[in-house]
């Protein structure tokens, strides 16, 4: 699993500030549609970008709660929302939410449940804290949706296989709608958000992402530092030669609490 200590939290904060993740965040907000005065929960709130955007939408007559098991993430998030007293953060996981039944009008979770072992339990917790008819939006990635052009396909497959070790459920979207229904949700929409980079620009998602992968996979599944550096060099060469391409799908499930 990835470590979200101070260094990991800062790295994630930088990644989430990229234009690609900002575009995803805008898409999520348009679907969740938080309204003035609503009480909204963000499960796995990370560095707090999404919480801050939701807080702007609900305003001081509403309330936003972010939960995350990382104290380093919560510190970054609290600083980001320091001028919004209607925002609150709790240090906890997705399976034991510290809230009463039916207190939230809406809830969101992006790139979180793929890390949670007991997804069914976590989704039941999400349903428990939502009022009947409350909205939920869950976003996760299927690892097999990744398209990334490299010349050494064998090495690339080895790197990605090692990278999957940081996840519990790398193909969660395939079963997520059914899991949500069984947890007490009515799934109303299923959509895809495509993250696409045609160049390795400094602020592209894949530019930071490849470095996070490289740091994680060295020493896993027999990968040496030299092999991982060769993988990075190959990706940079694709950009230099004008044939760089990165694309991955983020699957979104919009639902209401039955």
TrEMBL record:
Residues 41-137 form the Methyltransferase type domain. SUPFAM superfamilies: S-adenosyl-L-methionine-dependent methyltransferases. GO terms for molecular function: methyltransferase activity. One of its GO terms (biological process) is methylation. Keywords: Methyltransferase, Transferase. The keyword ATP-binding does not apply. This is Methyltransferase domain-containing protein.
């Amino acid at each position: 699993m990835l470590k979200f200590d101070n260094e990991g939290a800062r790295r994630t904060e930088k990644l989430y500030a990229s234009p690609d993740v900002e575009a995803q965040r805008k898409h999520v907000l348009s679907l969740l549609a938080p309204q003035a005065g609503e009480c909204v929960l963000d499960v796995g709130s990370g560095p707090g970008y999404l919480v801050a955007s939701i807080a702007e939408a609900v305003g001081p007559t509403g309330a936003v709660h972010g939960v995350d098991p990382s104290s380093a993430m919560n510190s970054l998030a609290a600083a980001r929302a320091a001028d919004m007293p209607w925002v609150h953060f709790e240090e906890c996981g997705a399976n034991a939410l510290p809230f009463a039944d039916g207190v939230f009008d809406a809830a969101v979770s992006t790139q979180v449940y793929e890390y949670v072992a007991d997804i069914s339990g976590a989704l039941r917790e999400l349903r428990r804290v939502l009022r009947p008819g409350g909205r939920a939006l869950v976003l996760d990635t299927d690892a097999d949706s990744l398209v990334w052009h490299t010349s050494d396909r064998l090495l690339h497959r080895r790197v990605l296989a090692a990278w999957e070790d940081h996840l519990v459920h790398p193909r969660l979207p395939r079963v997520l709608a059914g899991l949500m229904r069984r947890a007490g949700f009515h799934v109303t929409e299923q959509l895809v958000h495509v993250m696409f980079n045609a160049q390795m620009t400094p602020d592209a998602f894949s530019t930071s992402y490849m470095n996070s992968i490289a740091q994680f996979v060295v020493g896993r599944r027999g990968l040496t530092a030299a092999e991982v550096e060769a993988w990075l060099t190959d990706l940079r060469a694709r950009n230099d030669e004008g044939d760089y391409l990165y694309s991955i799908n983020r699957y979104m499930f919009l639902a209401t609490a039955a």
